[in-house]
Structures are given as C-alpha cells and as structure tokens.
Amino acid sequence: MRVSARAWRRQKVMISMVAKSGGERTGQVHAPVVSQLVGDSELQQAQQASASPHPLACLEASRAAIIVPLTATSAQEVVRQGRTVGQSGASDLVEWRLDYLESVSPREVQALVPKLQDLVGQPLLATFRTRNEGGAGASDDWLSFTGAALAGGVDAVDVEATHPQARQFLTGLPAGVTAVVSHHQFQGNGAGCLQGLEMLNRWGAEFPQVVLKLAVMVEDRLGLARVLNAVGQCPLRQAKVGPLARGIMITMGEAGQVGRVFPRLLGSGATFATLAGEQSAPGQVDAQALRDFHRATNCLGLN
C-alpha cells in the first residue's frame, strides 16, 4: 500500500512537550523533545512510496510563487479563510499564522491542520511569528504551537533564526520535514540587509535542507537600493534539496512593494500577497490583482 509523506508524518512523528496544564497555551515549555519514532529503513520506505513533490517545489517554478497568509484569530474564522483561499485559486502556497490565534490551544491546532490542508488544497506552511520578529506571539509559546502543527502533519514550519531554541529544533527535525529559517528586519531602512543575508547563509551552510527567508522593511528608494545592492553582493545561497535552489527575499512597506511585485529582482522564489486585504506584513498586495498584473507583464517571472 502506498503511504503518503503527509500521512506518515501525521502518524509517525510527534513533538513531546512537558508543559503546564496538559499542553494548553501557558507561556512556558519545560522540556521540548523532537523525536522520530521509526527507524531509518521505515522512513526511507515511506519516502520512496510517496509520489508527492517537495512541499515547497513551487519556489522553483517558472515564476515566483504567491504565498497567501491566513490571519484569523479563531478556529472558526481560520476555517472560513482557508475555504476562501482554496476556492480563489490565487495562491500557490498558504501560510497559517498561528501567532494570531486567540483562545486556541496547541491540541486544537494539531487537529485543524489536516482540515485546513484539505480546504486550501495546497502546501501549508505553519508560522508562529514572535513579537521579537514583528509578530503577535510570545517567544515561550513558539515551540508548543510549531510542534503541534508539525505533529498534525503540516507541510512546512517556520523557524526564526534568532529564536533561542532554533538550533535545537532544527537538529532534531525528522528527515522529510521542511523548515523555513526566517529573519525580519524592521529598522535601518535596509542598512542591515547584507548582515542579515550573511547570517542566514550561515544557517544554510549548517542546515542545507532548509529554505532561507529574509524580510527587510524599506522606507524609500534609498532603502530599496540598499537591499538590491546587498542581494547583488550576497544572495541567499540556497542549497539544492531535490528541486529547490531559491530562497525567499521580501521587501516590506509601501516603498518595498516593487520587490513584492517583481520578486525575482531580489532573487526570490516567492512573494506574499493577501486576499480581502488581510495583511500579515506591511506592503502586501492583493493576490488576485497580482496574478492579473503578472498575466499582463510577466512580473513574477522576470529575472
């Protein structure tokens, strides 16, 4: 019997977390353990049996992929958003922003993953963005929610490069699970972009299976020029893992919209866009409008 990689992860991979109140949101995780429960031979058998492509293979398409975020605060609303995104056909990959959830436990997140995957019909990236990186979540909650999504069989997870548990998490990540190592700069108008690229490339050298992502806030043409210059000096050295060679490079803010509309100018394999104006970061444009503009200009395919 053929076993899909998604089903195998859901059945055979779990995150063991010793937290207060039986795993509910508490703000403190005491003993995180990422454990693989099967041997290498069974893992290889499951991977060989899967006919599914790499979950982020869309980064290597002839045009940059469109990633649409789900920004709902409740389980009911995220289901509605997921259905809307799936029916729209405007995205290639869907990001679920776990840090926006209110009164939703990690256990509920785990149960929602397969339902959302069915609704969106596309790879699902789970992101718990902490306040240190511009999100709404507490750093202490990152592991429990990211682990819950992973245990639910999510296609990929976001790992903040600056999070104190990032290296431990990536070291214990089971084979076949995709991680996006990300960093966000909101200050400096692009002045720190080169340092950010160099830092992420070090992560890529240490963990060549990951996808690298850098997002930089730009305030004006000078900031955009700094980012373009930095990318020219030090592009994200995305290691090839299967079909993947591109990372994700984003310019945030109104002045950064040119980078969102023409992402290949930044060497990016993807851009983030919204449906119904539900932005997860400054400067995101409407996904359907972006698709229409691409059909007229090839904006997502220009290198």
3D structure, described in words:
With 303 residues, the protein is an alpha/beta fold. It has 10 helices and 11 strands. The chain has a 9-stranded parallel β-sheet. A two-stranded antiparallel ribbon has the order 1-2. β7, α7 (193-206) and β8 form a beta-alpha-beta unit. The longest helix is centred in the middle third of the chain and has 15 residues, at 106-120.
Write the layout of secondary structure elements.
Layout: H1 5-12, E1 13-16, E2 33-36, H2 40-49, E3 65-70, H3 75-88, E4 93-97, H4 106-120, E5 124-127, H5 142-151, E6 156-160, H6 166-171, E7 178-185, H7 193-206, E8 211-217, H8 221-233, E9 248-252, H9 257-261, E10 270-274, E11 285-286, H10 287-297
Helix pairs in contact: 3-4, 4-5
| Percent range of helical residues | 25-40%
Mean pLDDT: 83
Compute the separation of the termini in Å. Answer: 43 Å
Class per helix and strand makeup: alpha/beta
Describe the largest sheet. Answer: 9 strands, parallel
Strand content: 15-25%
Number of strands: 11
Q: What is the ordering of alpha helices and beta strands? A: HEEHEHEHEHEHEHEHEHEEH
